[in-house]
Design brief:
The chain is of the alpha+beta class and 156 residues long. It has 4 helices and 10 strands, in the order E-H-H-E-E-E-E-H-E-E-E-E-E-H. It has a single domain, classed as Pnp Oxidase, Chain A, CATH 2.30.110. Helices cover 20% and strands 44% of the residues. Strands 1, 2, 3, 4, 5, 6, 7, 8, 9 and 10 form a 10-stranded antiparallel beta sheet that branches.
Length: 156
């Protein structure tokens, strides 16, 4: 059952998306779901590397400007970011605020947070819990050129 935490990141999520400890978050996948032109949902796997909290109500996202997810955000403006981590499942519903900024191959979107939802097991589910998030290997080094490009786009 999910419950709304409101239209802003709580302090723990704000700190996580501030990228102050990005190296500890490398290797974790974050699904982003956008709305396609045909009305179907379009998933994309992103990472903490591609997200930056500007403030509690605003996130930046830097992704390939030619991707379907970028097109969906440009054309329909809505997306839901999923954080599926041990002991915590969060859905961040957001809306693109204005046109993206193109930075080479990347498009940087500014997203206004509409709602942050926390999903917790219902009593009938007993002790069922998420015990692992989406993990990938090898995690890129923060000094790789493409990683520096993404970080620069987010911070510009």
């Amino acid at each position: 059952m999910s419950r709304s935490l409101g239209p802003a990141l709580p302090p723990d999520l704000l700190a996580r998306f501030a990228q102050t400890d990005l190296s500890s978050l490398q290797g974790r996948g974050l699904p982003l779901v956008t709305l396609g032109a045909d009305g179907t949902l379009h998933p994309m796997l992103s990472t903490y590397l591609e997200w930056l909290a500007v403030d509690p109500r605003t996130l930046r996202l830097a992704i390939d400007g030619g991707s379907r997810s970028a097109r969906n955000l440009r054309e329909r403006s809505v997306g839901t970011l999923l954080l599926i981590e041990p002991g915590q499942t969060i859905y961040i519903k957001a809306r693109a605020a204005g046109a993206p900024i193109r930075m080479g191959r990347l498009a940087r979107f500014t997203l206004a947070i509409d709602d942050v939802l926390e999903d917790t097991p219902e009593e009938v589910e007993g002790d069922a819990r998420i015990v692992s998030g989406l993990i990938y290997e090898p995690a890129p080094g923060l000094d790789e050129p493409w990683v520096r490009e993404v970080l620069a786009a987010l911070r510009a």
